[in-house]
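Hello everyone,

My group is preparing for a crystallization screen and wants a predicted model to guide construct design. The compound we'll soak is flavin-adenine dinucleotide. Before spending weeks at the bench, it would help to have a computed complex in hand. I've included the protein sequence and the ligand's SMILES below. Output in structure-token form would be ideal because that's what our pipeline reads.
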Amino acid sequence: MKSVTVVGCGIIGLTTAILLQESNFKVTIVAKERFDKTLSNKVGAIWFPFEIEPKEKANYWATIAYKQYQQEVNKENGVSFIPFITAYNEKSNTDWVKLLPKKAVRKAKGSELPTGIDNAYISEVPLAEPLVYLPYLFNIFIKNGGNFIEQDIQNLQELSSLDKWVINCTGLGAKKICKDKHLHPMRGQILRCKKTNISSFADSTKKGALSYIINRTTDCVIGGTDYENDWNQNIEKSDTNLILNRIKKAGLKDKSPEILEEIVGLRPKRNAVRFEFDKNFSNVFHNYGHGGAGFTVAWGCATELSKIFIKITDNKNNISSL
Ligand SMILES: Cc1cc2nc3c(=O)[nH]c(=O)nc-3n(C[C@H](O)[C@H](O)[C@H](O)COP(=O)(O)OP(=O)(O)OC[C@H]3O[C@@H](n4cnc5c(N)ncnc54)[C@H](O)[C@@H]3O)c2cc1C
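Reply:
Good plan to model first. Here are the tokens for the complex, ready for your pipeline.
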């Protein structure tokens, strides 16, 4: 059996590992932290191509992921489809609307718009609740014969020496491993709250004034911030207040939502998702830098990657023929 090591146990690493197993690879995951300690475990996580480049490629991956989630809808694994109001203006990239099945998206009527939003789409989109979905994926990985090793990788040389083939899914961790100057954090502070009666929506039309709410099975996530190059992992009360003020303006007028937890996460933002073989360590393939859309594109990246690996491990092919 062909052997591959996937480094990283967030949404990108887990989906990559599972699709490689399904393509008959023996897969080991090596990671500094298991899935429950990752950024992926902390977030919404709704299907929305937010802050990810290049857009065309991200849209392609997102389409594949959308179809995968359609097959996975189940309370037991945390996947559902929910109506989601997405604000747009003349500057917004709304290409993603064209990706959805026609029945799954329409323009919102005036009466459906949260206060302060002039134009929006209402779409049926996947929600993959990480607290249920990540353990579900990890269990599939283990049932498929996967092996998990906890290890902090220091550099590319160490990464490359792990196996015959290595896939780098370390998110923002790739900054240290690859000394990648194109990768930086985009700080997001969010509030996990008791459920509210306001509809799920996102308004990302104004940089620095991101506002959204994602209603989940037992709680909701209210956001957020989009601060570029900000490594601060502390909870900032000033951000909590900004988030609450924006959501109040959008329709939660009666009372403040009951906060269960304040959370900070750093989006692994890059000028373009790094999805390629390393130039110096030719057994290493990079799959990181998915910005604010890891859950939105993960299955698409994993599908494309597993096809590449089926090809290169076929004796007739090598990397240069791809
Ligand atoms: C506030 C916020 C809200 C978000 N909401 C959404 C949303 O609604 N929908 C959506 O699609 N996306 C959302 N995102 C983006 C999404 O969370 C990320 O794109 C995604 O989690 C990245 O996944 P990942 O697997 O690449 O990284 P991570 O989840 O960070 O996993 C990285 C893995 O690599 C390992 N690792 C790192 N460094 C090393 C090392 N040196 N050695 C060994 N292992 C290492 C880690 O231990 C971990 O296992 C949001 C992000 C934020 C911050």
